[in-house]
Write the structure tokens for this entry.
Amino acid sequence: MVLELQKPRPIWQIMFSTHHTDVGLLYLITSLAFLFLGGSLALAIRAELFLPGSQIISDSMTFNRIFTVHGTTLIFLFIIPFASAVGNYFVPIMVRYKDMAYPKLNAIAFWMIPPAGALIWLGFADFTWYATPPYSIISAPGPAADMWIFGLKILGISSVLGAINFIVTILKCKHPDMSIGQVPLLAWSFLSSSLIILVAIPTFAAALLMLLTDRLGVSGFFNPAMGGDPIAYAHLFWFTFHPEVYVLVIPAIGMMYEIIPRFSRKPIHSYQSGVFAFVLLSIVGFSSWAHHMYATGMSFTEKTVFMVGTLAAVPASALHVFNFIATMWNGRIKFATPMMWAVGGIALFFSAGAGGVANAAMPLDFQTHDSYWVVGHFHLFVMGTIAFGSIGYLYYMFPYVTGRMYNEKMGRVHFVMSFIGTVMVFFTQHVLGLYGMPRRIFDYPPIPEWIAMNQIATVGAMIIGTSMVIFLINMIYSSGKGKLANTEDPFGVGGKYYYPFEAKNPSH
Amino acid sequence: MKKMIVLFLVLAVMVIVPVMESAFAAGDEPGKYLDRRVIIWNLFFKMMTVAFVVGAVVSGTIIWQCWRFRESNPKAKPTPYEGTDWSN
Amino acid sequence: MSGHSSWPEWIYVGVVIALMVWVGAEAWNAERLVDHIPEDAEVIKVTGQQWFWSFEHEDGTKEIGELHVETGKAYKFEITSKDVNHSFNIHDYVVLMDAVPGRVNTVWFAPTEVGEHDIQCREYCGLIHYNMRGKLYVEEPSS
């Protein structure tokens, strides 16, 4: 327990601490702050798109900046730091070690996040979260573009440092009596995602540097006017960012592996399948990147290779769904708030994957590329699976971090509203894409079907937004004034909780 | 077991039919060009049929088991692991 | 701790793999059909630039912002860009291909009915990306 608001610790003690629980808390607060900032941008986008014409945003450049910062914030400043929060707090406990392998490096990796976030928000670039050249070189206004590039450079380094820490902690610092086959699945998920980060991020780091020198005019890697090829950037970018989506989802699945067995009052159906699925996905995830580039003019053979690589990753994800269903089977399930989020997340994970398989079929890309189908699809992953798993885990770890219980009724209301809202926004956007609406557009022609679907999506988004306000109130109020929790078994599900919740924080 | 066989037969038919289609060469004469809309949307509807069938099975299973195994179900009984040191 | 793999899991994995193979085969087949450009397709050069489309027919006729074609003919678009990435899209005919500066991408179609259709840009290209639109007019053959 590191956040006892009734007996507050000096803020500088937390800020200068290198203990994994404090660093985890810092990551947690930072990531939640950016969740709300990035989420507010989403509400602005949806409000604007409620009708054709300008609603609350006066010009398209502002709109373009808003969706760029929305995507950049939620991926790099919410999802990844939130996973780092969970990993920092729990991985040392799970492997029965006193801290992360390199505590000072750990703190440094965290402290890179706020300046990077400041660079991104103060710059407010407009070139989408891909920053594709030639636009990002010859047309995107600076200094916003350059600030974004520097911000992401710093975030990439932070990720790599964190990954090194997780890998060494799990493989080298685990308790001598614990074999690698006894390490919990949540820790395995951090091991897998950290390995992917180590292999994938350096490619993007190179691409960012090349983009910067291109912008400065000293090189022409991606600028056709100087003999370069914009498609080269696309390959470098997607070689990193397709595996990166697995970096995003694997920890969330790991979090569900904590929640679902515990609330079903049974062990996980097959630990070995879980490990196998994580490791397989980490490897196969590198074979599909150019399915994001089907429309760039690739040859038939190239497209086929990447379609096969994409489809090959599906059985690994499907194994997790089977594992969760088989775990719940014959259980005695307590549907407390964390469990609702985890199960809802699995259902949405499956539907996201199903839509993705349709996407992988090459000719269907002609229908769906860069349309709202894609927006609906990936949001079912990042919101429906990752955010749901993360928020569920946040409710789950709340009593352990604060010693108090959140308000269960508000938690359930939060879930139901978010689930309905998520379905309303993102399922509808699949259909909207089939009707041809492109992504990243500030305004659209007054086609009646487009208007109707945009309105449904906006209403759904507002429902999600309202539920997040309820969530914020619940979290803040309950941290200070919630009922004291039975920290041995706060949810009353039985079983000896094997993580000693008292991580030995030296200043606490 | 029977359901497996039926599912397998359905899938087998869905594989054989397109293989037969590809035996007919692509249209090349004026007035008889292939309509890309038809090819692509047909593929899409085939994918959607399978996706929704599989989706109904998976989500139906999840919904049913959440209902059947909820702790407030009168038929709910403790798992063999309760009362033991099962959380590993 | 359970570590065994039971037979339902193997069947499930088998079904998933079979489905993926089927999806791949169907998609491969459809792509093969769609990829095959008829030899007598008339070439139309498409140029995207911030923020409009321009076209040049085989006979040298140029059009800006609108394109006139005829039913019963096959057309092959040779697409490029003058500045940043764009993407040429006639959604009603499922025509979509990126316009990348420094290269030429091709896609073809054969319109069958008279009508008017929207042309839009499907790759973010800046300020007026949202309104980089055009009109496709499909007409009866003049001869």
Residues 60-94 of chain A form the longest helix (35 residues).
